Amino acid sequence: MNVVLPKGVYSVSGETAIFSIHDKKDYEIHEIVQQVYDALKEKGYNPVNQLVGYILSEDPTYITTYKNARSMIRKVDRDDLLQAMLRSYLNV
Question: Which of 9, 19, 67, 69 could form a disulfide with 24 if both were Cys (CB 3.0 to 4.6 A apart)?
């Protein structure tokens, strides 16, 4: 059976997966940002603009409370978010 694993997850045996610390954290951040992005889009906002506004200012009002998006994004440290984005962008 072929299983698609998230980036940074390496299958060692049929049931075992190994994460590196950064890869696991980046994956968790990706999941949160994706959920926030989806919530912003569903509410009719431009998700990229809203997320950039939040990242630059750290003002949570850029993020909707719909689907608990504001609470989720506030759990992610801004430095960790920027590092994860840069690693993803540079594919490192």
Answer: 19
- The alpha carbon of residue 22 and the mean position of all alpha carbons in its chain are separated, in whole angstroms, by 13
* CA neighbor of 40 nearest in space, from 60, 59, 75, 65: 65
User: Cα–Cα distance between 28 and 38 in angstroms, integer?
Assistant: 16
DSSP E strands in the chain: the ranges are 9-11, 17-19
Domain parsing of the chain, residue ranges: 21-90
Could you give the dihedral angle defined by the CA atoms of residues 92, 46, 59 and 34, in that order, rounded to the nearest 10 degrees?
Answer: -40
User: Distances in Å between the alpha carbon of 19 and those of 46, 70, 76?
Assistant: 33, 27, 19
Question: Which residues does residue 9 pair with via DSSP β-bridges, in sequence order?
Answer: 19
Q: pLDDT tens across 49-91, in order? A: 999 999 999 999 999 999 999 999 999 999 999 999 999 999 8
